[in-house]
């Protein structure tokens, strides 16, 4: 399945399930649980079917011998679980469309849990009764049929993508509350890109506020992508802590759907340590809840997970009223930060999301931060754009730890990245990273660490994408033969409509762009060429849509419009990769790390404007500075954009004048005097 086909499948499945949500007797924030359960059921059905012949063959081979095994034992060896017949998806899908369907789904979930102890109390069951309302008893059947559309040959990766896609959309639908169990995947992917988990040997991975398990899944995918074999993936073990019972279930299903080995415990990390975390982990990643208060000081003060670097304290108060109260930690942000650092082993690395305010926090938090900076374990700080998360609209900061750094030549140095201007707008209230933005930001860290080969590989990747796009675009230009279209035009001289045949041909026969060895200056000139090419397709669009087409030419007109749309899409694709190449070449023209004003700075502990000079602040803006940057538009694009804005302003002014005139006339009709 191609990326485009997978995207369409995910979109179609989500749209179909979302359309039916209004009929369910469930609050919006509860609809996700039964839907994700059905995705899991469909996954189990397809995966089991894919292994069934192999399972049966081994069962027959061993039957009656010393090594005889049950079907269940063989199934667990082959695909990780056993699926009883009553849980087959077709059995449920083919049953009558009535209220008994909910009972069938519940019994299927119970049967799976009975045969697979690791899934006990994980799968949703009773909630399906609310998907067979009296006024629409066939609702659950309709939802079940939606997921029947997932192809039988779907792989584990496809199901993992679908599950994550639904998790993300449910989190968006829930707004602020959705962010408590889901961290946007593009932020997690960037964190993993910087962390770079490596296969080889036993690897232990902790998330003490794991939500639905997205950190684990993205880390596993990163390792798969970087050629970790099955044996190495079996040594990749995830340990999670999550206090919400329903979210624990989501996380366990997520790990199973993505074939990730893990142990998720329901607990409160502040008061419980189910995984004996101190100094035990190779990697720690988390997006913990920000600014938690009322954590009992007495319950954490003697816990080495939290007191290694210090525990936040309130300023002392001598009042009798305060003396009688049990002391609480004023803000738990630095409890989390200290826990992540102390959970690492001698070579461990960590990445966490934290409120921006923690970077400059004063009082006891200042002392904790100073201890960590001087020890040399903080490797990198990244400030993100606003609206990257569901829970907060303000910018957040990513903290990165590296215990080995404390013993290297960069002990007294921290890499700061200001990524507030790096984002892709999803809608008015949400932003994300594109795939290329993740790679571009990730390359800063790689260059800083001396990995110049990765920079050249990324440049080569963009050049290949560019060459492919230019080839496709030139083929589109070549295929754009002159079109003869009959228009109906009003002739005011004779007061009649006349038929006029016109022909349109593009004013360009080829896009000639240099595909290798780019400089920033050259890329700017190539963008100019691309802008002129785009104008030709825009002219064609205005030509076909600016006149009344005579009836009976639907096929020709649609074919013409499709070629225009295809051409514009290809132009924009070529432009996209040109701009990404330009970003790399402008920021790092020599293919080596350098400080870039407004983007990145390797700040020293000592020296002028060093970290000590900045009072141990970890706010990237203090070090990186502000770039007086252009908007990335070519001269032609800038003119085109300004013309469009000018026309829009003119239109709004006309509408405003018409509205004012209407208001004035209405006031006169009502006999209201305008004294303005």
TrEMBL record:
Q: What is this protein called?
A: site-specific DNA-methyltransferase (adenine-specific)
Origin, by domain of life? Bacteria
Q: Which InterPro entries match?
A: D12N6_MeTrfase_N (IPR022749), DNA_methylase_A-5 (IPR003356), SAM-dependent_MTases_sf (IPR029063), T1MK-like_N_sf (IPR038333), Type-I_RE_MTase_Subunit (IPR052916)
What's its catalytic activity?
a 2'-deoxyadenosine in DNA + S-adenosyl-L-methionine = an N(6)-methyl-2'-deoxyadenosine in DNA + S-adenosyl-L-homocysteine + H(+)
Q: Where is the DNA methylase adenine-specific domain?
A: 156-444
**UniProt EC number:** 2.1.1.72
Q: Which Gene3D superfamilies match?
A: 1.20.1260.30, Vaccinia Virus protein VP39
Q: Quote the Pfam families the UniProt record gives.
A: HsdM_N, N6_Mtase
* Coiled coil segments of this chain: 635-662
Q: Which GO terms describe its biological process?
A: DNA restriction-modification system; methylation
**Species this chain originates from:** Anaerovibrio lipolyticus DSM 3074
Domain named N6 adenine-specific DNA methyltransferase N-terminal is located at 9-147
Sorted alphabetically, which keywords does the UniProt record give? Coiled coil, Methyltransferase, Restriction system, S-adenosyl-L-methionine, Transferase
Tell me if Coiled coil is a UniProt keyword of this record: yes
The record's GO molecular-function terms, alphabetically, read: DNA binding; N-methyltransferase activity; site-specific DNA-methyltransferase (adenine-specific) activity
Protein family membership: Belongs to the N(4)/N(6)-methyltransferase family.
């Amino acid at each position: 399945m191609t990326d485009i086909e997978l995207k369409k499948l995910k979109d179609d499945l989500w749209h179909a399930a979302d359309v039916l949500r209004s009929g369910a007797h469930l609050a919006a924030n509860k609809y996700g649980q039964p839907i994700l359960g059905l995705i899991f059921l469909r996954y189990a059905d397809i995966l089991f079917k894919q292994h069934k012949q192999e399972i049966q063959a081994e069962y027959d081979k061993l039957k009656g011998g010393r090594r005889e095994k049950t079907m269940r034992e063989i199934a667990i060896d082959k695909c990780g679980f056993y699926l009883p017949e009553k849980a087959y998806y077709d059995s449920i899908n083919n049953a009558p469309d009535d209220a008994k369907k909910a009972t069938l789904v519940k019994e299927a979930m119970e049967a799976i849990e009975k045969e697979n102890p690791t899934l006990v109390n994980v799968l949703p069951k009773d909630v399906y009764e609310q998907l067979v309302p009296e006024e629409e008893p066939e609702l659950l059947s309709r939802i079940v049929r939606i997921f029947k559309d997932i192809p039988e040959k779907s792989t584990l990766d496809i199901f993992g993508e679908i599950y994550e896609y639904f998790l993300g959309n449910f989190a968006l639908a829930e707004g602020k509350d959705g962010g408590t169990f889901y961290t946007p995947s593009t932020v997690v992917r960037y964190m993993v890109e910087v962390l770079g988990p490596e296969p080889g040997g036993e690897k232990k991975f902790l998330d003490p506020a794991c939500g639905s398990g997205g950190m684990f899944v993205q880390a596993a995918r990163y390792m798969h992508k970087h050629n970790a074999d099955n044996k190495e993936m079996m040594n990749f073990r995830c340990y999670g802590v999550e206090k919400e019972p329903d979210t624990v279930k989501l996380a366990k299903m997520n790990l199973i759907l993505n074939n990730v080995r893990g142990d998720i415990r329901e607990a409160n990390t502040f008061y419980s340590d189910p995984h004996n975390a101190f100094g035990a982990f190779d990697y720690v990643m988390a997006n913990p809840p920000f600014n938690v208060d009322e954590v009992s000081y007495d319950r954490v003060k003697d816990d080495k997970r939290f007191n290694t670097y210090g525990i936040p304290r309130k300023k002392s108060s001598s009042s009798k009223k305060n003396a009688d109260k049990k002391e609480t930690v004023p803000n738990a942000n630095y409890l989390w930060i200290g826990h992540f650092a102390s959970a690492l082993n001698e070579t461990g690395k960590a990445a966490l999301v934290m409120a921006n305010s923690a970077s400059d926090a004063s009082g006891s938090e200042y002392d904790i931060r100073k201890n960590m900076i001087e020890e040399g374990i903080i490797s990198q700080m990244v400030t993100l754009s606003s609206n990257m998360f569901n829970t907060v609209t303000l910018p957040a900061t990513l903290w990165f730890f590296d215990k080995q750094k404390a013993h290297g030549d960069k002990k007294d140095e921290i890499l700061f990245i200001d990524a507030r201007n790096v984002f892709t707008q999803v809608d008015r209230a949400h932003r994300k990273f594109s795939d290329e933005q993740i790679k571009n930001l990730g390359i800063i860290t790689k260059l800083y660490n001396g990995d110049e080969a990765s920079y050249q590989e990324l440049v080569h990747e963009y050049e290949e994408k560019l060459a492919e796009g230019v080839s496709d675009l030139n083929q589109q230009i070549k295929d754009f033969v002159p079109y003869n279209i009959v228009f109906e035009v009003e002739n005011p001289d004779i007061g009649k409509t006349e038929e006029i045949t016109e022909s349109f041909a593009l004013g360009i026969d080829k896009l000639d762009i240099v595909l290798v060895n780019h400089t920033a200056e050259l890329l700017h000139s190539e963008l100019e060429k691309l802008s002129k090419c785009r104008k030709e397709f825009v002219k064609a669009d205005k030509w076909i849509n600016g006149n009344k087409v005579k009836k009976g030419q639907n096929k020709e007109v649609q074919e013409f419009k499709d070629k225009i749309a295809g051409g514009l899409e290809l132009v924009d694709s070529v432009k996209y990769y040109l701009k990404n190449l330009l970003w790399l070449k402008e920021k790092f023209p020599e293919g080596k790390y350098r400080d870039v004003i407004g983007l990145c700075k390797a700040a020293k502990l000592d020296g002028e404007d060093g970290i000590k000079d900045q009072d141990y602040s970890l706010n990237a803006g203090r070090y990186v500075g502000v770039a007086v940057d252009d908007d990335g538009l070519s001269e032609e694009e800038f003119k085109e954009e300004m013309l469009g804005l000018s026309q829009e302003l003119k239109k709004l002014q006309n509408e405003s004048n018409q509205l004012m005139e209407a208001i004035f006339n209405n006031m006169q009709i009502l006999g209201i005097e305008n004294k303005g």
